Task: structure prediction
Amino acid sequence: MTNHQLERDFPHGHPAASDYDPASPEAIEWVRKNVSPLGERDFPVDHPKALDTAGNVNHLTWRAGTDPHNPHREEFTGRTPEQAAGVAAMSAIASAAAAESPVTIPLDAAEINAALDAKRVELKRDILTAEEYAAVVRDVHSRPRDPVSAEDVRAHIDKQHRALQALLTRGYNRNTAMDIIGREGADSVLGDLARRQSEE
Amino acid sequence: MGRALEVVAGFATNPSTTFTALTASTGQSFTVRGTDITKGTWLMASWAFNATAGELRIRSPRLHDFFSGIRNRVTAAFVGPLYLDPTAASYAQRLYAQDALTVELTGGAAEIDTASLLIGYEDLGGVAGRFIDNPTLQKIGLNVVTVEVTVTAVATGNFGGAVAVNSSIDNLIANTDYAILGGFTDTRCDSVGVTGVDFGNLRVGFPGEPSLRSLTGNWFAKLSQAFSGAWIPVFNSANKTQTTVDVQTTGAGGTFIINLECVQLLPGQVPGGATGAAVQAGGGGAPTSAGQPH
Result:
């Protein structure tokens, strides 16, 4: 009957094992795994992220959209160079044929939505065709507005800037100055300041 | 109040080392809209898409100075916000009605480089869009839905390839308001634009940077939070065929998959919208309660 040792107190190669042989492969391996002459390690020996583990990927740069294991692939899509070239060629053809976006004229959403709703009621359906849509927008734009010439707007804004500058010079902060101009009007502010200057 | 939000994009052809004034995209202008300087008008963000690194300069005698003004380095092939970054507390630059901003770019010597400004109007006379703020979104939001479209851009530096929000997947519920929180693009471009009557026929937009999904995915919600106001655009699905998505990019053009992250809203809560009176005047039996869990 053989008396096998079923459970060792220390593994082969461990310095505390009774059969410890410093020159044995097990002892050398134990030292490799457990002795760090330079100090505490960040990861154990052979950990995939340890710098001295063969095949570690610590040197890879993880750029957004790029698989560092497949740097030849197109960023964000992962397409092979052949696929990317094919798609680029196809996109170039499509881009050449694509149309620039139509220019839209700014409007009031509430006003145009009311007009569109009236059209929907008239037609008894919600989704209007592009032509019906355009007709409603055209109709809204053709309604008479308060005529204000570009020169009037420029003169009005210039006066507001002069009023703002005058109020800032008198020590008002910008928000307060804007409130005053908005409340009293640039004419009133400039008139008031002119009157004060003449009194002084 | 006539609230409006507009992304104005432009391009410079072969700017090289010379500051080159941007040509605004067709139908757009770098002159600030409006007829009254007391109405709050704000430069809320700017960004650029250069194939070669350069500088973006925004100047006006009405702003800090006309010498250098707001000048920032544009890194190559990255469409991150330059001024401002609405991901945190920020400070919007006040703009003045009718001020012609000088927007210039440097970059490559053999390419079209592009840049965009996002301008918010608190009260733009004659123009009004539909916008909500974050508390309102929390209160009347119902379900998240994504609008996905494929846009083929033009290679001229202008906005192009406009397609309706229902052009790829037509899953929006009839006569229902949707808030656009932001969106994604799968390929880099300068700007993604969304245009419709619900936005006063102006183009709202966000940077076309695919690697900043956490920024662009809820871009408008971030704007709303950073600048404490209602800057989340709302459109009604009754206008879906005329609410379009387009792209502005460099001379490379290309095909773009755009996702708009939307939230279905309770009906009738955002003023100025379509009611879809022809079919569902009462709101179509939509749910009557909404909001985030408390």
